[in-house]
Amino acid sequence: MAMDKHAVLKELRDIGLVPVLRASSVAKALALAEAISEGGVTVLEVTMTVPGAMHVMRKLAEDRPDILVGAGTVLDPETARMCILEGAKFVVSPAVNIKTIEMCHRYGIAILPGGLTPTEIVTAWQAGADVVKVFPASAMGGAKYLKNLQAPLPHMKLIPTGGVTLANALEFLEAGAFALGVGADLVNAKAMEEGKPEVVTQTARMYLDIVKEFHARSKD
Predict the structure, then answer these.
(1) Which residue among 5, 11, 28, 45 is the active-site one?
(2) Pseudo-torsion of CA 213, 169, 133, 161, nearest 10°?
(3) H or E stretch at 114
(4) Distance between CA atoms of 125 and 129, rounded to whole angstroms?
(5) What pTM does this model have?
(6) 133 is catalytic
(7) Is 45 designated active site?
(8) DSSP labels for 136-163?
(9) Rounded CA separation 107/88 (Å)
């Protein structure tokens, strides 16, 4: 079933997390996806660095329609189109590529290009970004940097990625994050290698609890 772009963005906002899936094989990627979704996190960004990434997206789109699958590390419009045809509901890039943004607009798919400096972020937004991925956020001072960005740019939706952990997740949300891009702190390949998927599942639950608590406080 096709999903409206606004519904996709609402789900990203409501779940508040975009786990960045990196794995060394299709099987490991699918196992990670299972462990993360078991914890209630039904959003997943499958990066193009995963061997067989297209197959992972197609399999998840077919077998797990409850998971909002996105494509990550998309560097050009051709790759974006292929990911969309395999079932990606949103496209993420570490940088700004105008033609990739245009391709996603053509298909009505949410596009989340990356930017780090104010100039890059504004350029991405003006080019039609639905959300801008601030990457690598930790390199610029983390939540403090995000807060400084949101002061003059309060209308821009930003997802900090790079250096987000359970310890600073709330700080990022309080700084104005639209959602959190979470890497190794949640997508824990080591735990999976050790046969402990429950570690990933529990971490997913802990992240969700932080987001839910923040949203509940924000409504008060």
Answers:
(1) 45
(2) -150
(3) strand 114-115
(4) 5
(5) 0.96
(6) yes
(7) yes
(8) TGGGGTTHHHHHHHHTT-TTS-EEEBSS
(9) 11
